[in-house]
Amino acid sequence: MIIIGVENMHNPxxxxxxxxxxxxxxxxxxMFRKEEELTPSQRCLAVRRMPSxxxxxxxxxxxMGILAGPLCSYKDYITFIEGRSxxxxxxxANGKEDVKYEQTDPSPNIAVTQKLLICGFxxxxxxxxxxxxxxxxxxxxxxxxxVSLPMRIIYLYVSLMAxxxxxxxxxxxxxxxxxxxxxxxxxxxxxxxxRWDLISNLRIQHIEFSTSFKMFLDNWNIQTALxxxxxxxxRASFSxxxxxxxxxxxxxxxYPGYYLTFLTGVLMTLAARAMRNNIRHYxxxxxxxxxxxDVITWIATQVAISYTVVPFVLLSVKPSFMFYSSWxxxxxxxxxxxxxxxxxxxxxxxxxxQASIKPSWPKxxxxxxxxxxxxxxxxxxxxxxxxxxxxRYPALKQ
Length: 398
Description:
- By secondary structure, this protein is mainly alpha-helical.
- The chain is built from 17 helices and three strands.
């Protein structure tokens, strides 16, 4: 576990929990629910035949993802095991598909090499810089008494940024291991280059330069975010946002810091979305104004994320409350005021729009990982039983 950069020793149990629950719901959707009751993603991932014991154990315990994942859907895993090939297709103006590229065994060498380089840099950063910037220093009595507020904010951001490379290392290495085994191929782009990001768990550039709470969460621990959406948010009968964050805390473990972080995350998510819905459209017309807006929101996002995840790192109640008390719970109070003051976005029927209270990972992230599109694109693909492969890889034809 130390080798892959994971502090706790229960990661295999966490991954297996994800796989068992995901497969259980996929079987339930495919064999025990009516077609019209399913969402597009549920219809796409539904398993319509009970797996054999060998298939079940192979999916849950395969060597590629047993330690650090990442999670993959049962259908993606079986497609890989069965060795299916894919073609890149491009639609012509008349609607016909013209096959441009075909390759039975695409090489993962370039993707694996790039990811191993990222692993090496992340590990080096963690072993050097991270050790000199401990998160615990944020609650040091002398630090709080002698350092000015601006410097405390800067150190908060830098110390939490320095804590992230260990996750970059673990998740990128896990992704590279799967790619090296041939798993993770998601087809070809329009230039015929192979894509190996089917089960990627993070996008580092989007994380470090995120300008919204949603953008950060959309690109952090991607497969877990999708799992939470599929097994909890879409199926919750009430308060889906709160239930989803609580499930995430329970899944991580029993440390109180997890619960403090995810409960704070509920406030941050809702407040950030309310701010964005009510304010952002005033700043997008002029490029210079938009640039200033992006800089300000980047700063606000990084501070908010850092403030939120401190208990996740400290784990215990006492140091977590020491930190929040030293900040006078200012961001908690600010989020509550935002939710009380700013109106929630409403639909034409006058009800609260679901998107305004969704957790930060649903639509655009789902479109990339379930529909196979870029994270900022949309699609109107139809889904049915005969299109189970193409709905997972819309740019591909089997």
